[in-house]
User: What shape does this take?
Amino acid sequence: MADGLDKEKVKLLKRAFSMFDSTKKGSIEKEKVRTILTTLGQTYDEKQLDALLDGEDPEGSGYLNFDSFCKVAANFLDNEDDEVLQKELKEAFRLYDKQGNGYIPTSSLREILVALDDQLTNDQLNEMIAEIDTDSSGTVDFEEFIEMMTGD
Assistant: This one.
């Protein structure tokens, strides 16, 4: 698997990468990696991340392909146990499900995505939300949230 990542983590990263590769050209802006790591609940050292990003972008294009993205993300995901990840995702979901209804409205999801990356266009947000809200209910339940975050 990509840099020692198991199949599940590669699926998780592929899903996250695809969400930010809105033009489907096979690359994302280096700065989006911060957003993805934050979304996945990962902590990182800014200097370490900058060095890794620069190392995977020797030409200074500002973009990473999926393999380079995996190499960078692997530095922060390797120690992540699936059980711990599941617990972190449940906690993150609970933070946004303030009423405890078992779902969050897509409007809240839109706010979350904008807070994570204020460069996203409305079209990109609509596309991401449509991909996440698979049943078009206007809400994202825990299963959809987990699927979004893990690709399961």
Notes: The two ends are 17 Å apart (CA to CA).
